[in-house]
Specification:
D-Maltodextrin-Binding Protein, domain 2; globular; 5-stranded mixed sheet; single chain; 2 domains; about 15% strand; alpha/beta; about 350 residues
Length: about 350
């Protein structure tokens, strides 16, 4: 006569079996190496990995974290990773330079606007003589910015729009975002240009510093998510799973920005959490590729060509380098990740 197993024992055995199965499943997930920069534009990636959201959608994402867009392009060129996030201007220049990568989603974006650049700002020191809202007063001043990075592109477009010619503003190359603080505080420059969370940090740490311009509609500061063309051709299903995880991570970031910053602080050493929690309010995390987003791509290309960028001297065919289908399919299959966003075309 067989002995009856108590119900609670069966439940424990089932739970252990389920846990073992889930762990085995997680171990068998395809892995994907992805490169990002250690700033808030890449925050959904960190949230997605920390909270297991990519794994929930069938892909184990391993992040390589670097300091600049230039390092991202180099990591892709060396095949150290299969994909990476970068600004739209970095993508355009990289693709023009021969890097075979395609955009399939946006990690940081406002799909309702073609000129959302609120995370970027120009900040002046006390007694600099620069007037808030009047970029013409930058004439003859020293402005610190990291050359060949997104703030540099933003500054050049802003100065061009203000009618200032090359050489009328002295640009100083500061190759580290944290170094902007002492350079402004010690009056080595009259103003600095950066992105979040560094703008908020500068305003907090440099006494008397003030905003000359936040954003301004000069460009769309989008963080594009790219894969190498070879991966998209060989494994489009992996790209789809990644897009689902990114949509879930973007939603989680928008819903709980303070929690997202706590995660950011785990990944990026030395973060001023209070400052970052203020800074993140200036950033949109909308992964959709809309008509406005595509217009922003075109505008960025036009600006780079007009300003004489040596690595972006002709326009890319957006139909060939921006794959809109991935995230649009995710919108249909997982509408819960987009329910807080305004509808767009």
């Amino acid at each position: 006569m067989s002995k009856r197993i108590p119900g609670w024992v069966g439940a424990i055995v089932a739970a252990l079996a389920l846990g073992h199965s889930a762990a085995a499943g997680a171990q068998n997930l395809p892995t994907l190496d992805f490169v990002i920069v250690d700033n808030l534009g890449h925050l959904p990636m960190m949230v997605g990995v920390e909270k297991g959201l990519f794994k929930q959608h069938g892909v184990d994402v391993r992040l390589k974290i670097v300091k600049s867009g230039t390092e991202i392009v180099n990591a892709l060129k060396k095949n150290e990773v299969q994909g990476g996030n970068m600004s739209v201007t970095t993508f355009i220049k990289g693709r023009q330079g021969g890097e075979p990568v395609t955009v399939f989603a946006l990690a940081m974006n406002d799909a309702t606007r073609a000129n959302a650049d609120d995370p970027l700002a120009i900040i002046a020191r006390k007694d600099s003589g620069i007037k808030p809202g009047d970029l013409k007063t930058l004439k003859g001043k020293k402005v610190g910015v990291w050359f060949e990075q997104t703030p540099d592109e933003y500054l050049k477009i802003a100065l061009d729009k203000a009618g200032l010619k090359k050489g009328e503003v002295e640009l100083v190359n500061i190759t580290s975002n944290p170094a902007l603080v002492p350079n402004l505080a010690e009056a080595k420059v009259d103003a600095v240009v950066s992105l979040e969370p560094w703008n908020t940090l500068i305003l907090d740490k440099v006494p008397g510093s003030y905003l000359v311009q936040r954003g301004g509609g000069y460009m769309s500061y989008m963080m594009v998510s790219t894969f190498q063309d070879s991966l998209l051709k060989s494994n489009p299903d992996l790209a789809r799973k990644f897009a689902e995880g990114l949509a879930a991570a973007s939603y989680a970031t928008r819903q709980n920005r303070d929690e997202a910053i706590e995660i950011f602080a785990k990944v990026v050493p030395g973060v001023d959490v209070a400052t970052a929690k203020k800074a993140v309010r200036h950033i949109s995390y909308d992964p959709r590729i809309s008509a406005a987003s595509l217009s922003a791509f075109d505008a960025a290309q036009d600006a780079l060509i007009r300003l004489g960028s040596s690595s972006a001297d002709k326009k890319l065919d957006l139909k060939q380098v921006v794959a809109v289908s991935y995230m649009r399919d995710v919108e249909k299959s997982h509408p819960q990740y987009f329910k807080d966003l305004k509808k767009v075309n």
